[in-house]
Amino acid sequence: MILMPKQNWFRLLFVWNDGSVLRSISPQLFLMAIVSSVAVATHGRIFGAKIPLNKTPFTLFGLTLAIFLAFRNNASYQRFDEARRLWGDMLISARELTSQIICYVPASTDKIALAHSLVAFVYSLKHRLRGTDSSADLIRLLERARTEPLRKRRYQPVALLNAIRCELADLQSRGLASGTQLWMFDLQLNELGKSVGGCERIASTPIPFAYNVLLHRTVYTYCVLLPFGLVDSTEFFTPLLCVFISYTLIALEAIASEVAEPFSFAQNALALDAITRNIERSVLELCDRELPDEIEPIRPYLFT
Question: Which of 18, 140, 272, 276 has its CA 20 to 30 A from that of 126?
């Protein structure tokens, strides 16, 4: 996802790239402009035969299509919103666990190493959800001796949580932490584990493929036939109207497809890079360590 500063209403009219999906669907809109122009040039005829369409069926069918698109977008945004909440809960639990470690763990314990393990857990989860290699981030945050065994693990975030739990349990077994303190640590670790499970549920359970196919076919069929239903009443304005209506429907479908996969690299997916960096900065600030640079918003491209 792209992080962008708030734009005024006039600049939003001219956003070309970076989240507007206009650039990605411009070939489809160009195709609709050609189809509309053909409909105007032939007065709604194909091979000399007039296509018997008018505005009435398109009005009724368009209402049904709009309801279906709304359902599809709501289903997609629910997945996006749940993912956003899970990562928000992860931020809260990471802060709480770090604060508890700093306040309750004895000074003789390497608290910074525990904090780095927690940050490494966050980065490993991001890479697991995206299917990317986590080696660089693990090497940056952990000792190489700990990184090598983790690279062979299929569920690296779970392994890192387990390692943190084992280290905290060892403190209790050596009498350096009470049972109540261990219970407090374990509560936050359980919350982090729930967030991992929730993210894996979203990533492994996409919206049924049949919904995508049905909506895709319906949208394009409607857009292709629309010029032949409007040409008698709108004449030379048909291409303009049809391209605008096609932009609305096709863009909604494209946005829904991106939002439905919140952990992907799509422009309208979750800003996982910024979220993980924010968690890292928050944890390191509690440890009084030097903070990495914050990820800056990207300025959108505008028409020139």
Answer: 18
184 against 109, higher pLDDT: 184
Distance CA 250, CA 86 (A): 30
Classify residue 17 by its DSSP letter: S
- In the chain, where does DSSP find H-type helix? 9-12, 22-41, 55-104, 111-130, 135-141, 144-151, 156-173, 179-204, 209-234, 238-259, 272-286
The model carries a pTM of 0.84
Compute CA distances 250 → 37, 49, 116, 254, 302, whole Å.
19, 29, 44, 6, 21
| Paired strand residues for 50 | 45
Q: Which residues contact 35 (CB under 8 A, 6 or more apart)?
A: 224, 227, 242
Higher pLDDT, 47 or 212: 212
Could you tell me the residue ranges of all domains in the chain? Answer: 9-286
Is the Cβ–Cβ distance between 211 and 72 less than 8 Å? yes
